[in-house]
Amino acid sequence: MGVLDELRNQRRAAGSASGSAADGQQPALLLIPDISGFTRFIEESGNPQAPFLVADLLEILIEANILDLEVNEIQGDAVLFYRLGPPPTAEELVRQCRRIYLDFQNYLRLVERDTGSALAASLHELALTLKIVVHYGRVSVARIREHTKLMGRDVIVVHRLLKNNVAGAEYILLSEGYTSTQPAPELARAFSWTRLLPGATYYEHIGETPYHYAHLSPLRLLLAASSAAEQEARPGCALKVRRVLPVPAPYALRVISNFRLRPRWMQGATAVHYDVSKAGRLGTSYKADVFSGQIDFQTVQCLEDEDGRITYVEKISHFRLFPNALLFYCLEAVDLDSCLLTLELRYGHVASTHRLIRFGQLRRLHRFLGGSVQQLARLVGERG
């Protein structure tokens, strides 16, 4: 046996499950959420924050995973997920697709609320939305160093299905490979909130490829209803605390943006983990050990307007009860030696159906923000 034959055998063994066929292929669900309008938004917005926003949106798609999907690759404006084994039920799949779409749109709404932001203005003018392509077939799985590579005809099919004859830019497309695994009554029931329509597209080397699709637009009614309910309980889906700090605004910003100092003033924080070589850059991520858990943060932007008002923004990840949250630190000069800090947490929705749980968590989070600002004022007073 030659070296190449041995390497092939090792890769085949690493990528094959016990139930795989003799050809080394395994049944797999392939799912691609694709951001529509991505290229136009990057090119025409002219905003330096646009690539960071798209990166955040791709992260939102990954965080919305509730089907134990694996990320195979990120392709600019899309994520290729896969899951080996039997297909999920139509109900499970629709729940996953709805979660992806709603989390995506909720995050866009958070950004759009900043009416003074040029990025928000670009979003209004150059709308971003989402399409989701689903296929079920067979794949070969190979390990190439630390990477997993999916190969086979069905991987080509799911990518080709991104280009199709469906009108509009926000929809779920289900290949015949997936719909053939589901009883028709269950498919109809899972899509009772919209219309599941037949379609087909001809692809070179593949041929006529039938599928079914459903527009996601009806879910915008849920977004509007959720927003109205949240605003009635807590206007603007935001928590806000204010406090005067006994230092100038630029000094306060240096303390707030210094990751190393975060445990000195964030309530319950005991340690912070980050790449020292990247500290101070926009887009830098760090983890804070808070109480008995951990919160992931990422710096998003830092702006100063013509009046000297400073806005520093961080994104909060893996915060399950408040998904897609942003933390705004707004600093305004009071006089030469002090500034007013407004700390505002903006969130898309509270991820609980129980009213008492939502109310209790909002109160708890408000106390957390208030206690943190109080400790920050004490810290800068000592250092000032």
Automatic annotation (TrEMBL):
Domain of life of the source: Bacteria
Protein name as annotated: DUF2652 domain-containing protein
Pfam families the UniProt entry points to: DUF2652
Annotated ranges, domain Guanylate cyclase: 29-162
SUPFAM superfamilies (UniProt xref): Bet v1-like (SSF55961), Nucleotide cyclase (SSF55073)
Organism (species): Hymenobacter endophyticus
Alphabetical list of PROSITE patterns matching this protein: GUANYLATE_CYCLASE_2
Gene3D superfamilies registered for this protein in UniProt: Nucleotide cyclase
